[in-house]
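Q: Convert this sequence to structure tokens.
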Amino acid sequence: MGSKNKLKRFKENLNFKNLFQPDRDELINKSFKLKGKWNKDFFKNENPIVLELGCGKGEYTTTLSKWNNNVNYIGIDIKGARIWKGAKDSFENHLKNVCFIRTQIELIDHFFSKNEVDEIWITFPDPQQKIQRKKHRLTNPDFLKMYKKILKKGGIVNLKTDSEFLHGYTLGLIEAMGITPIFSNHDIYSNNNAPKEALEIQTFYEKKFLDSKKITFLQFKFD
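A:
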């Protein structure tokens, strides 16, 4: 994508009332206004809240919001030119149960209070295989601890990836925590017994590599 198109999208992002782009320093030093109040002050309902982390163009966020209008969805990504797609589509289609946050995933506990979230989707994150990049893996122990904090008791985490490494790494971590996965499969399209959401929604990235890579899916909850 050219720099002119990116700048155009960044400018458009400023007009979407369903996209939040807080300054990092301000966020860290001052409490985000909707933290602990998403249901009351933004969605205006008591429906469950589901996050898509590293949402990219927001395929899961927008599609799930259309499937389930009694659930609230929030897509989170740091890439403004990517998140523009989901924010624009949901804004123009007047989807009331969806919004987006442009921020780093490691900051999500500044946006959500303890036990505020019902479910998390992590869709095709960078596996960060090099050992020196371990701290950036979205399922490393620090991230899992953060997810457990903001999730309600029994809250579900879904990991969909084309990385056998990340699937196995995450599976090993949760089993070491005494967690038995709800579902774990290394090639979901060959088995067809994965949840509907994992099979019937495909991201831009997934479609690009679907013919050359197997897609894995892991679902678990913190007891």
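The CA atoms of residues 53 and 76 lie 5 Å apart.
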